[in-house]
Structures are given as structure tokens and as C-alpha cells.
């Protein structure tokens, strides 16, 4: 599975459940935008490492809405405390999908620790998270996405990017459009 | 003789300011100076409070909370500003997201720990460089009003603001 395969599955789920989506910085955001650009998507343009945190804050602020964050292994490694904070809060409406391709995909596929020794699902469990799922094919991901709106999915993938185009929206445009839906 | 009006402790005054400002979402990273304030915030039913592991994480969580309609603040030590600079610039300032940072300002007058001094001295300079407005207690100004004014500034300017509360401010405690 490549990241784009995972994003296709997540986009289908998000569309069907009207979830608010936080997309990770870099190529993941471009791929999400390319596959399924809807006003309920928030595209990160900076602040690497914080997709999971933005998603957590949003889910706590809006318990009436489903929230999905798509993050990467490199970003989670940069903000590993997020897994402990998510565990302590454990909101029912928050699903974090970590696409773990063992590489910093947006900067030239330099290997991360998960390609060598680090097991993010074990870290997530060790941090206290109860609902942790591991998948490695689009079909397995689709099945887990069908059965839960809560927890952490580690989707094992191979490195590799599509040539999804740059997002032309301004930061002001992205957040204004998003908040018109998220604060309703 | 009726009783004299109750004088608020510094923590109580800050807490009153938080409530007056309508802050309803708080993340915290502890500091000895915040040890009375954090439990007050934690017990307040109208405020959603969560401890976080690092200030940068807190900046992200507060941004998400704002995007869901909350009025967010972070209780922190000034050292945490150093952990937050990229997020404050490339998230809050880029997307016009307000945040109130209530900072215990260490490393200034009365500081016993030498390691606090470098960041203590750098903090106002870093805030100036980042064009983050900051507010400090003044004689004759109610700390509660200071907090409310800082949050109003954050909302009007759509950016992060800081309130720097140095060691002498907390010394008035009890």
C-alpha cells in the first residue's frame, strides 16, 4: 500500500460520515486536496508534528462532530507526547490515522526510526491508548474505518509520493472555509 | 464594622481574569508559580482543561479548539516559548488564530535557578521579534483586567498574545 491508497480509503470514509479532516503538512495535504477537496478539510501548511494535536483540540471542542486526522510517522516521532495526551483524553469522536511509510516522504524519503526499530502501534498502546489498530492493505484499512470512529490506526505503507499539485488556497481561505463548517 | 473587601491572591486574580475573558479551553504545562492556579482551572466546570506534554503540542491543541469555536489559553512557563516558536508562527500567525499565553516569567528578579536566566532575559526580546503583543502587571492595574485585555487583543488582532507574570507578582501570593 502507498500513502495515496490509504488517503483514498480515508477520503471515502470522511465523505460518507461528514467528518472534519485535518491533513498533515506537505505531500499528504496535497494528495488529500487532489483526491477529495471539501470545505470540511483543513490543510496544514506549516507546524510539522501538530496534525494529531490540532485534531485532538478540535474533537474536544466539538464532541458533536466526527474528527479524523491523517498524520505521518515522521510527524508523530516529532511530537510523541501527543500519543500520551490523546490517551488521557480518549475522545469518542476522534480517529487518528498514522500513515507509516517509514520515511520523511515530503523531503526526499529519508528513513525514519519506524523503518528500523520503532513500532508506533506499540508506542501508542504503551502510552495508554486502548483502541489501536494496525493495517497494511487498503482492504484492511477499509474494514477498520467501517468499524470505528475512535482510536488510532497505524497504516503501514511503502514510501512514495504522487505528483498531486500544490494547493492554491491561501491560509486565510483554508481556515475561513473550514470554520464556516466546523463552528456551525 | 463590616469585613474588609476580600483581597484576591495573584492566582485568584488571574483566574478571575480568565473567567471574565470567557476563556473556556485551557492547556497547561506546570510551573511552581502556577501550582495554585492550575487546580482552580481544573475544577472550573465551564472550562475544559487538559495537561499537555510540551508547549508546542499545546499550541496545536489550542488551535484545533479555536477551530471548533472555543476560546483557548495556555498556562505555561516562559521557557516553553522556546518550544513553541515555529507553531506560533507557522500555525497561529499564518492562519490568524488567537491564543492567550499566560506565562510565569522565570529568570528575572528573585530567580534562584541559574538555568532560568537565559530564557528569562530572552523572552521579551523573542516576543518582540515575533511581533507577539505582551502584557505585564503594572501597579494600580487589576491583574484580572490585564488578562481580559490581553484576550481581547488576541481576538481583535487574530494572533497569539502573552501575559508575562514575573516572580515578584507571584510573591504577593498569600
TrEMBL record, chain A:
<dbReference type="InterPro" id="IPR022494">
    <property type="entry name" value="Sulfopyruvate_deCO2ase_bsu"/>
</dbReference>
<keyword id="KW-0456">Lyase</keyword>
<dbReference type="GO" id="GO:0050545">
    <property type="term" value="F:sulfopyruvate decarboxylase activity"/>
</dbReference>
<dbReference type="GO" id="GO:0019295">
    <property type="term" value="P:coenzyme M biosynthetic process"/>
</dbReference>
<dbReference type="InterPro" id="IPR011766">
    <property type="entry name" value="TPP_enzyme_TPP-bd"/>
</dbReference>
<dbReference type="Pfam" id="PF02775">
    <property type="entry name" value="TPP_enzyme_C"/>
</dbReference>
<dbReference type="InterPro" id="IPR051818">
    <property type="entry name" value="TPP_dependent_decarboxylase"/>
</dbReference>
<dbReference type="InterPro" id="IPR029061">
    <property type="entry name" value="THDP-binding"/>
</dbReference>
<keyword id="KW-0174">Coenzyme M biosynthesis</keyword>
<keyword id="KW-0210">Decarboxylase</keyword>
<feature type="domain" description="Thiamine pyrophosphate enzyme TPP-binding">
    <location>
        <begin position="41"/>
        <end position="147"/>
    </location>
</feature>
<keyword id="KW-0786">Thiamine pyrophosphate</keyword>
<dbReference type="GO" id="GO:0030976">
    <property type="term" value="F:thiamine pyrophosphate binding"/>
</dbReference>
<dbReference type="InterPro" id="IPR000399">
    <property type="entry name" value="TPP-bd_CS"/>
</dbReference>
<protein>
    <recommendedName>
        <fullName>sulfopyruvate decarboxylase</fullName>
        <ecNumber>4.1.1.79</ecNumber>
    </recommendedName>
</protein>
<dbReference type="GO" id="GO:0000287">
    <property type="term" value="F:magnesium ion binding"/>
</dbReference>
UniProtKB/TrEMBL annotation, chain B:
<feature type="domain" description="Thiamine pyrophosphate enzyme N-terminal TPP-binding">
    <location>
        <begin position="11"/>
        <end position="112"/>
    </location>
</feature>
<keyword id="KW-0174">Coenzyme M biosynthesis</keyword>
<dbReference type="GO" id="GO:0019295">
    <property type="term" value="P:coenzyme M biosynthetic process"/>
</dbReference>
<keyword id="KW-0210">Decarboxylase</keyword>
<protein>
    <recommendedName>
        <fullName>sulfopyruvate decarboxylase</fullName>
        <ecNumber>4.1.1.79</ecNumber>
    </recommendedName>
</protein>
<dbReference type="InterPro" id="IPR029061">
    <property type="entry name" value="THDP-binding"/>
</dbReference>
<dbReference type="InterPro" id="IPR022502">
    <property type="entry name" value="Sulfopyruvate_deCO2ase_alpha"/>
</dbReference>
<keyword id="KW-0456">Lyase</keyword>
<dbReference type="GO" id="GO:0030976">
    <property type="term" value="F:thiamine pyrophosphate binding"/>
</dbReference>
<dbReference type="InterPro" id="IPR051818">
    <property type="entry name" value="TPP_dependent_decarboxylase"/>
</dbReference>
<dbReference type="GO" id="GO:0050545">
    <property type="term" value="F:sulfopyruvate decarboxylase activity"/>
</dbReference>
<dbReference type="InterPro" id="IPR012001">
    <property type="entry name" value="Thiamin_PyroP_enz_TPP-bd_dom"/>
</dbReference>
<dbReference type="Pfam" id="PF02776">
    <property type="entry name" value="TPP_enzyme_N"/>
</dbReference>
Amino acid at each position: 500500500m502507498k500513502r495515496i491508497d490509504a488517503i483514498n480509503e480515508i477520503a471515502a470514509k470522511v465523505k460518507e460520515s461528514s467528518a472534519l479532516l485535518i491533513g498533515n503538512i506537505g505531500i499528504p495535504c496535497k494528495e488529500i486536496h487532489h483526491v477529495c477537496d471539501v470545505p470540511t478539510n483543513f490543510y496544514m501548511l506549516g507546524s510539522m508534528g501538530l496534525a494529531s494535536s490540532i485534531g485532538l483540540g478540535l474533537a474536544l471542542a466539538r464532541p458533536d462532530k466526527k474528527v479524523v486526522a491523517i498524520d505521518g510517522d515522521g510527524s508523530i516521532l516529532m511530537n510523541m507526547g501527543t500519543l500520551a495526551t490523546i490517551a488521557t483524553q480518549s475522545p469518542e469522536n476522534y480517529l487518528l490515522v498514522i500513515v507509516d511509510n517509514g520515511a520523511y516522504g515530503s523531503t526526499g524519503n529519508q528513513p525514519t526510526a519506524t523503518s528500523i526499530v520503532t513500532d508506533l502501534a506499540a508506542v501508542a498502546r504503551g502510552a495508554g491508548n486502548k483502541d489501536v489498530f494496525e493495517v497494511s492493505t487498503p482492504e484492511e484499512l477499509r474494514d477498520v474505518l467501517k468499524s470505528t470512529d475512535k482510536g488510532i490506526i497505524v497504516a503501514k505503507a511503502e514510501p512514495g509520493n504522487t505528483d498531486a499539485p500544490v494547493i492554491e488556497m491561501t491560509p486565510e481561505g483554508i481556515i475561513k472555509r473550514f470554520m464556516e463548517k466546523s463552528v456551525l | 464594622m463590616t469585613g474588609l473587601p476580600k483581597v484576591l491572591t495573584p492566582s485568584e486574580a488571574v483566574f478571575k481574569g480568565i473567567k471574565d475573558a470567557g476563556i473556556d479551553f485551557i492547556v497547561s504545562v506546570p510551573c511552581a508559580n502556577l501550582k495554585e492556579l492550575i487546580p482552580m482551572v481544573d475544577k472550573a466546570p465551564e472550562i475544559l482543561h487538559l495537561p499537555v506534554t510540551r508547549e508546542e503540542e499545546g499550541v496545536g491543541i489550542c488551535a484545533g479548539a479555536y477551530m471548533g469555536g472555543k476560546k483557548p489559553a495556555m498556562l505555561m512557563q516562559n521557557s516553553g516559548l522556546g518550544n513553541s516558536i515555529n507553531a506560533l508562527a507557522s500555525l497561529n500567525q499564518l492562519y490568524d488564530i488567537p491564543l492567550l499565553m499566560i506565562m510565569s516569567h522565570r529568570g528575572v528578579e528573585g530567580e534562584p535557578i541559574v538555568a532560568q536566566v537565559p530564557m528569562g532575559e530572552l523572552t521579551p526580546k523573542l516576543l518582540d521579534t515575533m511581533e507577539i503583543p505582551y502584557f505585564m502587571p503594572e501597579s494600580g492595574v487589576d491583574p484580572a483586567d490585564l488578562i481580559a485585555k490581553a484576550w481581547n487583543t488576541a481576538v481583535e488582532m487574530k494572533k497569539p498574545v502573552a501575559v508575562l507574570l514575573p516572580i515578584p507578582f507571584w510573591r504577593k501570593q498569600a
